[in-house]
Amino acid sequence: MVVTGSRLITNGADAPTPVTVVPTADLKNISPGDFTAALEQLPVLANSQNVATTTISFSGSGQGFLNLRGVGVSRTLTLLDGQRMVPSGVLGLPDINLIPDAMISRTDIVTGGASAAYGSDAVAGVVNFILDNKFTGLKGYAQAGISDYGDGANQQVSVTGGSSFFDDRLHVVASVEYKHQDTIYEPDRPGS
User: Fold this and answer.
1) What is the pTM of this model?
2) Neighbouring-strand partners of residue 170
3) CA dihedral 119, 121, 127, 132 (to 10 degrees)
4) Which of 92, 131, 135, 190 has the fewest beta carbons under 10 Å from its own?
């Protein structure tokens, strides 16, 4: 039996350690674009790195890494449904941009006393993404935009579908997502 903080509770106020439970709908209201950018709006994740802030020299473009309390991206344990995420990229860190946004049901964040339960990878804390594994139906999402200066065009499209088979003994969920953002040229800005 494996017991983690996010498997015990659905309400962060009832947990023995402080757990922040953030439904995906709330994150989409904060920042309808990049999921990592939405998580960065939470004060505890303010120093995370997303598509806009990650440089190619650091880890490669288009990746997102979580940094709880500014301790460092390598000190934040990232889980997917209670299991450690597989590292990606040259630094061996889990890239949360590999998780389709449409499949995330909620995000549980533990910042206090996490290393005692999860080990030294969780010195800063734990972020656990809970997927909607029982989604049934079809949903889509599309978004596009451009800056007032004609640069930084971005597009995001996702389609998710799920269905049950064999009297609910098999449930299949699939999600496809495309994201793209062009460069923002700072010299074109007034005052640059």
Assistant:
1) 0.76
2) 165
3) -80
4) 190
